[in-house]
Amino acid sequence: MEHExxxxxxESGPPRADxxxxxxxxxxxxxxxxxxxxxxxxxAATQSAExxxxxxxxxxxxxxxxxxxxxxxxxxx
Length: 77
Hints:
By secondary structure, this protein is α+β, with helices and mostly antiparallel strands. It has 1 helix and 3 strands, in the order βββα. The protein has one domain. It has a 3-stranded antiparallel sheet. The radius of gyration is 12 Å and the shape is globular.
């Protein structure tokens, strides 16, 4: 199954280009429902799942990380 990372922002409301990312979540490709159960804004920024575990993917949701590892144990490095 394909995944990507989607941002959750510090502020509520529609995402702005300059809004700080509160935390990154893992979602199924083109989805807005995080693996941890949180509903995210479909217009929020995304990045490749390959950013998971790198500085670009921080801070990352620990719950999403645990669920992602269950589906992709080979991605641990």
